[in-house]
Amino acid sequence: MGRYSGKTCRLLTMLSLTASFFVVEIVVGYLTNSIALVADSFHMLSDVAALIVGFASVRISKWQTEKNTYGWVRAEVVGAMANALFLVALCFSILVEALKRLVTFEEVENPKLLLIVGGMGLLVNFIGLALFHNHGHSHGGHSHGGHSHGGHSHGGGGATDHNHSQGHGHSHSHGHNHRHGDGDHHGNEEEKKALVKHTSANGVIKPVASEISQDEEAGDDESVKIIINDTSKEELNNIDIDIDNPRVAASAQLNMRGVFLHVLGDALGSVIVVISALVIWFAEGDWRFYVDPAMRVTYISYNLSFIACITFSSSMVMVMIIFSTTLPLLKESGFILLQTVPSHIHVSEIKEKVEKIDGVLAVHELHIWQLAGNRIIGSAHIRCKNLQCYMKTAREIRDLFHHEGIHSTTIQPEFTAVRIHTL
């Protein structure tokens, strides 16, 4: 599969196995009247949906489009939420069916076949766990795809890698932090001259509105601003996990973690099927047929006797497994779509850290939200004394955001009044 990456190859492999086994499970489940196997087959179907979403999102996220400036990277979030909602509905249907079986149970036929199919399902899920185990927990790896960027000013005449102004105050942070000694000082002076389009009566720099945005609340005579965008869309798509911050790593790759949780939950479901088949096959008495729709709550009742345990539904435990793995996925995908602050990021702490950086006078309009997975976007207004002061603190600000897992930042410096001395 030379045309596919390692991630997509794993997804395609597991998708083929899961889809094939779903058909086997649902057919055998209805033939043997096993509610546990039927429930597990529908859980397997949810795994098929999750794998399709995972594969599609990996492919679609790379598409370029003018209408979607970030591409289709949120397709995986929408798919994860749709899949989670499907699983919640599945929990309800399994619960209703289990209650029906407790009232009027049906004899499970051919438990040997049930055991064979359950064992095969367990094998398939073990393969899935082996394929996706790296996505089930935080792990180390390589550093970020998006590297640290320096504060370079690009003018309208074309991009340049050095600190030279081309007549525009709009500054993009794309390259590396170059140091040129006296040339830097000269570059800063050039930028200051480029910014000064006209001066108010009290000597405050007033930029042209089309080139530098003004904060209307702050007043025209109070500040000069430049937009610093730290990461381009191409770099954003290549961002990897910040291994220095475990909280960042824990929130990465939402869709792949969802796939892992689905496979893990289905593996537990296969264990349920195997245990049910063994009890029905070897035990005696009518009570054994309650094992399939009524066996395990041993997770919460270790001290109960086996007879007490069988009064509870094994399908209820299946519901607990599915719901417990679905709820975090539903919650996280919903928060991402609502553009809330990621749970591992504390805005107040970041604001305090930025304010402690030498040269930063104030921080406001700090916004942080999650595009998808570990792609976190941040923006802030930073008040500094002047442009030269900001250029000295820009790297520290970027490094701070980068360490917190915010790899795409838009910083709008606000410069306090600068006096222009005339000869």
The chain-level structural class is alpha/beta
Total of helices: 12
How would you name the CATH homologous superfamily of the largest domain?
Cation efflux protein transmembrane domain
Q: Give me the strand/helix succession.
A: HHHHEHEEEEHHHHHHEEHE
User: Tell me about the biggest sheet?
Assistant: 6 strands, mixed
CATH top level of the largest domain is: Mainly Alpha
**Alpha-carbon Rg, integer:** 29 Å
The CATH topology of the largest domain is Alpha-lytic protease prodomain-like
Name the helicity range. Answer: 40-55%
Strand content: 5-15%
CATH architecture of the largest domain: Up-down Bundle
Domains, number: 2
The parts where pLDDT drops under 50 for at least 5 residues are 137-228, 231-252, 291-312
Region (Disordered): 137-191
Pfam families: Cation_efflux, ZT_dimer
Biased composition (Basic residues): 137-152, 165-179
GO molecular function, one term: zinc ion transmembrane transporter activity
Describe the structure.
This protein is of the alpha/beta class and 423 residues long. It has 2 domains: 6-133 and 249-337, Alpha-lytic protease prodomain-like; 171-229 and 342-415, Alpha-Beta Plaits, CATH 3.30.70.1350. Helix content is 50%, strand content 10%. The protein has helices at 6-32, 35-60, 75-103, 111-132, 182-195, 233-237, 246-250, 254-282, 306-309, 314-337, 347-355, 387-403; strands spanning 171-172, 198-199, 205-206, 224-225, 228-229, 360-372, 375-384, 408-415. Strand 7, helix 12 and strand 8 form a beta-alpha-beta unit. The longest helix has 29 residues, at 75-103. The radius of gyration is 29 Å and the shape is elongated. The N and C termini lie far apart (71 Å). The model is unreliable at 137-228, 231-252 and 291-312 (pLDDT under 50).
